[in-house]
Design goal:
This protein has about 375 residues and is mainly beta. It is about 5% helix and about 50% strand. It has helices at about 5-15, 115-120, 295-300, and strands at about 20-30, 35-40, 45-50, 55-60, 65-75, 80-85, 90-95, 110-115, 120-125, 125-130, 145-155, 155-165, 170-175, 180-190, 195-200, 205-215, 220-225, 240, 250-255, 260-265, 265-270, 275, 280-285, 310-315, 320-330, 335-340, 345-350, 360, 365-375, 380-385. The termini are close together.
Length: about 375
């Protein structure tokens, strides 16, 4: 039995590109948007929606005070599983494309006039219906490769990116932007190494950005630069881990000047002591010749732990029977626990009995586990894989 924490970290490094990125916490999303799943930045505000089973409403959010300023109902829309938003100069596109089990035959994209959206809190949409050209099996076998959560406008086409639960890759399909009934054409595929949940095409940069998370909820962004319909994924696809901790990143949208918003939805696992609020983050890419802030550099070289958030880091100890961790905090550990994915506690140690930062994993069956540390005023938890 051993853990694979180090191989996961190495995978990130192998894919990580040369781009410099700053990550900023914009604020907590309103709880009315705790299941937010798609975003666009339009008229200086964030437009968002919730996913499956929620009302067919688009929410307009002020990103300064994080308050909802408008709610626009799609009168002829049903939120079977809304998963993403995109836009062009004249229309907003709402992707009702969630398809976890791969059995849906009513996949659709709602096309909403921006003129209608601007002047009324109730709109009717044109409907783009489609099916995949290469899907033959509609049997419910649980997780499938036919789920999808990412959509973006690219020139005169809509690009849809599947979320392959089985293969952790994505297949890209193109669909016309006009209302009608279509067969979505397969145009590309990519071994993402994670679950794709959002897409945004930055027309000014001619870059395609995808947001995703790994099987252990480690979020990352994929960037494919200078794209074309026949070259959506070139040789220089960059994979950039997002330093926002344990999170279910659900959407990405272009703001401008290489700045992008990323949304996460609420994630709760009471048995693990995990409660993550829905958040909005901004990422800003630096150009290679951008100056580095000297004060920021000095702070990185001389970190003061009293002014940092408590963090839990996991490492491979190079011993197949051990997982090594490090707690970046001046607080004492009251207790340490390990949970499996069903919520069952498989190991527990009181803080007074913790002798070192090595966790014995010899008795663990293959699977995903959560190392949880209780610090009194907070609980830190991080996933690892044993096999």
């Amino acid at each position: 039995m051993r853990t694979i924490v180090l191989p996961i970290l190495i995978l990130f490094l192998l894919y990580e590109g040369s781009a410099q990125v700053n990550v900023e916490e914009v604020g907590q999303m309103p709880m009315e948007l705790m299941e937010n799943s798609g975003h666009i930045f339009y008229n200086g505000s964030l437009v968002s929606h919730n996913d499956s089973g929620n009302a067919p409403i688009l929410y307009v959010l002020d990103t300064v005070n994080m308050q909802i300023t408008r709610r626009v109902t799609v009168l002829n829309g049903t939120n079977m599983d809304w998963e993403d938003l995109s836009q062009d100069d004249a229309y907003i596109y709402v992707a009702d494309i969630g398809n976890y089990s791969g059995i849906r035959t009513d996949l659709a994209i709602y096309k909403i006039s921006k003129d209608d959206f601007d002047r009324s809190d109730e709109v009717s949409a044109e409907i783009i219906k489609f099916k995949y050209e290469d899907q033959q099996d509609f049997v419910d076998n649980g997780e499938s490769n036919w789920d999808a959560e990412a959509l973006t406008v690219f020139n005169d086409q809509l690009l849809l990116f599947t979320k392959q639960w089985l293969d952790e890759g994505t297949v890209v399909y193109s669909i016309p932007k006009e209302a009608g009934d279509y067969v979505a054409k397969r145009v590309a595929s990519y071994a993402a190494g994670g679950l794709i949940t959002g897409a945004s095409y930055d027309a000014l940069q001619n870059d395609l950005l995808l947001v995703a998370y790994s099987s252990t909820l480690s979020p990352f962004v994929l960037i494919s630069r200078d794209i074309g319909m026949s070259s959506l994924f070139g040789d220089a696809v960059e994979r950039i881990p997002l330093d926002i901790g344990f999170a279910q990143a659900e959407s990405i949208t272009t703001v401008g000047l290489q700045r992008y918003f990323i949304g996460t939805e609420q994630f709760v696992r009471e048995n693990y002591g995990i409660h993550l609020d829905p958040m909005l983050y901004a990422i800003q890419f630096k150009k290679d010749n951008d100056p580095i802030d000297e004060m920021e550099e000095e702070e990185e070289e001389n970190p003061d732990i009293d002014h940092q958030e408590d963090r839990l880091l996991l490492f491979d100890s190079y011993n197949p029977e051990k997982l090594q961790y490090d707690l970046l905090s001046n607080k004492s550990i009251l207790a340490q626990a390990v949970f499996d994915t069903s919520g069952k506690m498989v190991q527990f140690t009181l803080g007074a009995d913790i002798e070192n930062n090595d966790l014995d994993v010899t008795t663990f069956k293959s699977g995903v586990y959560y190392l949880t540390l209780y610090l009194g005023d907070k609980v830190l938890s991080k996933a690892f894989v044993a096999y």
